[in-house]
Amino acid sequence: VQLQASGGGLVQAGASLRLSCAASGRTFSNYAMGWFRQGPGKEREFVAAISRSGGRTSYSDSVKGRFTISRDSAKNTVYLEMNNLKPEDTADYYCAAALGTSYYLTTERYDYWGQGTLVTVSS
Hints:
Blueprint: E1 2-6, E2 9-12, E3 17-24, E4 31-38, E5 45-50, E6 57-59, E7 67-72, E8 77-82, E9 91-99, E10 112-113, E11 117-122
Parallel strand pairs: 2-11
Antiparallel strand pairs: 1-3, 3-8, 4-5, 4-9, 5-6, 7-8, 9-10, 9-11
């Protein structure tokens, strides 16, 4: 699976952004999808995940209630809607794909990764 993330940018605190991750190369519906982020000097951390059916989702505590993950099988794309952004959300955001029926929270479980898209939130 090839993954292409986009949608990052520079915004002020309180603003919204929507990240997209377009998948190609294999059957999108066979893969659970996830978003991770890596801030300056930090390890990559889990943000959100969605099962291959789209029926189950999971979020980190730091983004729960502000971020929404979704997927559009017709477009082979997964989205991350980010609202009420905070300076601590500043990071490179990565999408990833995992072959399986559930959703997954750890980097080790994912088989394919896209390049990062940078989100910078100013205070």
